[in-house]
Amino acid sequence: MSNGNGTVDINSASNIYNAASEGMGTEIYVEPQPRGTKSGSEQFMEAYTFLTKKGIAVRTIWIKITSPINWPNNQTANTDFINKFILCAWKHGLLVGIYTNWYDWEQIIAGQITPNQRQIRLWYWNLLGSSLNDATPPTFADFRPFGGFNAPMVKQYAKNTPICGICASLNVYLKRSGTKVLLANMRVEMANVTVDNLPVTLPIVAKSSEKQLQSKQLGQKATTYRNKTSPLIH
């Protein structure tokens, strides 16, 4: 939704189905158009309605809060826009995550947006540039609390990395194993859909529809994929 008043990526649904057919977990994020005439709640509803009409059960949705130049120079209005998106998502029973970093957040918002901010997941990015050589360590050691966020769930640490014929961004996320927290590596971004290997115990932003899950073949593939050992970072 980055141009004009914004529109849903029409390829997102097919990307989700293609990922599910290979047993991959999927996540959805919205890149909003904050300078358009549509409110945050309207932009959420467009994305949510589009996906649900395609038979996709959305459990969590991420909103991308980056590139301050694309946002109005009005932090109060920006906060209102984001809150309307979040509140509408909560009203529909979804979990909400935000993709940002401390600098983008400081320029666009500059503070906490809601007293319930602990309910919002954080996916932050920290890169030295746009090439693989500009990657930061795939750990959370560089994280510092900001804007009401005290702990992250995901970190993007590299961009434009060639993997299987595509340029991908690399992310590291928390993987819980009993009471022990591990770091699991390798998530691949394609358009507005992130293909990952998040375990089912963590919030999954979108899942295949019940009709898909009834497919024995898909279920077997998904089970096989989840049983594979995730690469760990020590």
Automatic annotation (TrEMBL):
<dbReference type="GO" id="GO:0007165">
    <property type="term" value="P:signal transduction"/>
</dbReference>
<dbReference type="InterPro" id="IPR051595">
    <property type="entry name" value="GH25_Enzymes"/>
</dbReference>
<protein>
    <submittedName>
        <fullName>Lysozyme</fullName>
    </submittedName>
</protein>
<feature type="region of interest" description="Disordered">
    <location>
        <begin position="215"/>
        <end position="234"/>
    </location>
</feature>
<dbReference type="InterPro" id="IPR017853">
    <property type="entry name" value="GH"/>
</dbReference>
<dbReference type="GO" id="GO:0045087">
    <property type="term" value="P:innate immune response"/>
</dbReference>
